[in-house]
């Protein structure tokens, strides 16, 4: 019995000593605790490697023809494609444009259809696209399918702009993942220096400023590394402001976007009708449908002029003077997609009518009336344009 008690006492004493040791350690001041280094991985402390760097002394070759044009100072001109027919796309690709802007924001086109267009005719115009928004899926579909020019609409904030940069560029500039696709594996697999190594130097990224919030943040957006140019959206800046081209309020918005781009040392972009504005060096031209109309009308007008000279094919040329003007009105205003393009066509028609005979003036007047009848929301502005030019539309 005594022996058992002695063991029990010794055990209790041992536990008491152990507990005292633990409590004593806990009571030590923090400064006396042994330092435990934090061994966790931190991405921000990581130094990016040299795997994708070119050999020392070499610089990325610019193999993207659109980027070469911009580096030379421009002007860079892009045609607009809304169709899905490969023959139409190829005709546009060989027409002389620097790049083609496939419309994926406002058209019901699939990426499979776009990929087929680019695979059929990857040049000479560089493949480009206006995506729907600054999104990983949208932009990486575009780049992986072969686009060399990325246009992102409705950029309102620095955060949205940074997202567009992230999904357009490979690390260390952006966050584009390396997923293959026909772009890197087929269309551009043998570019000088290698696709992955030279992509960041060759891609063109245009951010569209379309809203009042976008204009407010344009200067901060323009300064982000990776932005090639700001595109002043001629139609939607009117849509979001309630003013149009020629109005002081509208022109101030356009000037603010252009100044933001120039201040940051990047390009200011706009519709081709702004080619006479010295701040702008990159432009969006007409659609394939408009080009078909204009080309057909030019061919017909040339034929009519020849008929008139030779006496062939009938007599009167009363419609030939107005023919080109009427064709342009139909192309831009028959189905109004970009209101300012229609207004510009209307202003040109009114000006041209002033030098025409009465029958031709009547043709232009009637065409404008037809357009107004089919587009009531644009009626007031079109009547104002006609009135300013001295062409009365009222019976």
Features:
8 strands, 395 residues, TIM Barrel, alpha/beta, disordered N terminus, 50% helix, 11% strand, 2 domains
Description of the structure:
With 395 residues, the chain is of the alpha/beta class. The protein has two domains: 65-278, TIM Barrel, CATH 3.20.20.60; 290-388, no CATH class. The protein has 17 helices and eight strands. Strands 1-2-3-4-5-6-7-8 form an eight-stranded parallel barrel, surrounded by six helices. Helix 14 (320-333) packs antiparallel against helix 15 (339-353), helix 15 packs antiparallel against helix 16 and helix 15 packs parallel to helix 17. The longest helix has 25 residues, at 2-26. It starts with a helix and ends in a 7-residue tail after the last helix. The relative contact order is 0.08. Mean pLDDT is 85; it is low at 1-26 and 314-320.
By DSSP, the count of extended strands is 8
Class derived from helix and strand content: alpha/beta
- The rounded Rg comes to 32 Å
Order of helices and strands: HHEHEHEHEHHHEHHEHHEEHHHHH
Question: What is the end-to-end distance?
Answer: 129 Å
Biggest beta-sheet profile: 8 strands, parallel, barrel
């Amino acid at each position: 019995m005594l022996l058992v008690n002695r063991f029990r006492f010794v055990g209790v004493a041992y536990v008491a000593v152990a507990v005292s040791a633990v409590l004593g350690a806990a009571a030590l001041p923090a400064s006396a605790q042994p330092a435990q280094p934090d061994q966790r991985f931190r991405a921000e402390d990581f130094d990016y490697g040299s795997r994708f760097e070119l050999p020392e002394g070499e610089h990325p070759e610019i193999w993207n023809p659109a980027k070469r044009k911009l580096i030379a100072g421009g002007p860079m001109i892009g045609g607009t494609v809304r169709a899905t027919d490969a023959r139409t796309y190829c005709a546009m690709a060989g027409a002389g444009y620097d790049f083609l802007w496939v419309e994926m924001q406002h058209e019901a086109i699939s990426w499979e259809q776009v990929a087929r267009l680019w695979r059929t005719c990857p040049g000479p115009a560089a493949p480009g696209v206006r995506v729907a928004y600054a999104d990983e899926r949208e932009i990486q579909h575009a780049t992986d399918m072969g686009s060399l020019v990325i246009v992102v609409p409705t950029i309102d904030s620095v955060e949205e702009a940074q997202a567009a940069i992230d999904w357009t560029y490979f690390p260390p500039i952006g966050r584009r993942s390396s997923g293959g696709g026909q772009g890197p594996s087929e269309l551009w697999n043998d570019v000088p220096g290698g696709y992955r190594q030279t992509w960041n130097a060759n891609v063109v990224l245009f951010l569209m400023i379309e809203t009042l919030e976008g204009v407010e943040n344009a200067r901060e957006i323009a300064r982000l590394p990776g932005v090639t140019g700001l595109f002043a959206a001629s139609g939607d800046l009117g849509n979001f402001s309630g003013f149009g081209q020629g109005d002081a309020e509208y022109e101030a918005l356009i000037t603010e976007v252009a100044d933001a781009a120039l201040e940051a040392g990047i390009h200011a972009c706009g519709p081709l009708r702004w080619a006479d504005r010295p701040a702008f060096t990159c432009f969006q031209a007409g659609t394939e449908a408009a080009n078909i109309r204009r080309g057909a009308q030019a061919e017909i007008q040339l034929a009519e002029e020849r008929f008139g000279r030779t006496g062939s094919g009938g007599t009167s040329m009363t419609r030939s003077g107005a023919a080109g003007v009427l064709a342009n009105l139909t192309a831009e205003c028959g189905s109004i997609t970009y209101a300012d393009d229609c207004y510009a066509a209307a202003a040109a028609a009114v000006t041209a009518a002033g030098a025409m005979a009465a029958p031709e003036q009547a043709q232009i007047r009637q065409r404008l009336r037809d357009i107004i009848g089919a587009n009531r929301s644009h009626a007031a502005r079109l009547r104002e344009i006609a009135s300013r030019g001295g062409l009365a539309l009222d019976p």
